Automatic annotation (TrEMBL):
Transmembrane residue ranges: 15-33, 66-83, 90-110, 116-133, 172-194, 200-218
Organism: Limosilactobacillus caviae
UniProt keyword annotations, A-Z: Membrane, Transmembrane, Transmembrane helix
The name this protein goes by in its record: Membrane protein
UniProt keyword Calcium, yes or no: no
Keyword Glycosyltransferase: no
Highest taxon listed in the record's lineage: Bacteria
Pfam family, one: DUF1275
Amino acid sequence: MDKLINYHKPAEARLFALLLTFSGGFIDAFTYIKCGRTMAAAQTGNIIFLSAALANHNFLGVVDRLGSLIAFIIGLAMVSILHARLRTDYWRVVCLLPILLVGTVIGFLPDTFPDYLMVPAVSFGLAMQSAAFSKIEGLGYNSVFTSGSVKKAAVAWSEYYFHHDYSQRKAALSYLTIVICFTLGAIISAQLLPFFRMKTIWIATFLILVTDSSYYLTKKKKANKNNRQKKES
């Protein structure tokens, strides 16, 4: 368990990174399939679709993609604001609350709920998740899209195999695991969506709740341990 949870740096714990990445792939696939090929987090794809919508004079398509892009940017900015303003070590716990709230509410919504309202809310929450938890064992990664992790995995494996740089082995394995988790999340989401419809998102929401709660308890345990050590000294 110690290999999965870093008690010295809980925000970089492998377990939390894998759970959040699985959830990120799960939710991104959910919005892509359910909301007319609009991605909640993969803004590269949204910009391409936005360009296509402009070229085809698809006003609703422009609104959907632009709304997601703007909400994602605001979510990233919000994390910086909270980190600066909240005088607590638990600011990351707060940063996961928006996606938990959004995911919970979406599960109760009808299939006909407007995409241009739902997707920006999801984008905002995923952006905050992405910015709050951005490292796995000291390595930068992203839990809500995976193109960067694919690149880093390929580069690390290449350095390890072709240049015998054994220091890259850990990075190669970490990024490969991240890519696999994201892919599995997306595949499982796509398979479950026809059966559970809007409630499908509750699976990812539950995993994020587990992550948030576990992170809080880990930080609390670390704080209590430090306080005991100070009293003993």
